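Revision sheet: structure tokens.
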Amino acid sequence: MKTATSSSFRRLLTAVPAVALAAGLVAGCSGSDPASTPTGSASASVDPTEHVAENLTEFSYDGEDGRTALELLEEHDPDASVQGEGENAFVTAIRGREADQDSEFWALYVDGEQAQVGAGTLETKDGQTITWKLEEFE
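Predicted:
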């Protein structure tokens, strides 16, 4: 038999993670320059245990003079998965979101235009926006 105290305690346990998530989002949005912060498009969920990475389809950061898109990706996401090195590098996962190798790939864009070279070759410049988009094979 459930008691009022037991029911209230369960509601409290459910509310605590949601409040902590909201506080973290507010703290993460304040006190930083949004132009210098990497962004990722992901759908938020009330359930903080759900994997947000599953919904990630885009990830952006600012370019820097003399640094490659790959160097900056690995700095902004140390856990990014990359096969190969340098000009032969192929990004397979960003922020835990792995591309389905049978139907998807992470495409590299500079200022909204798809890059013509790989991430390990592409030298970025200050003021550029580097974006990775999860795309399907055509």
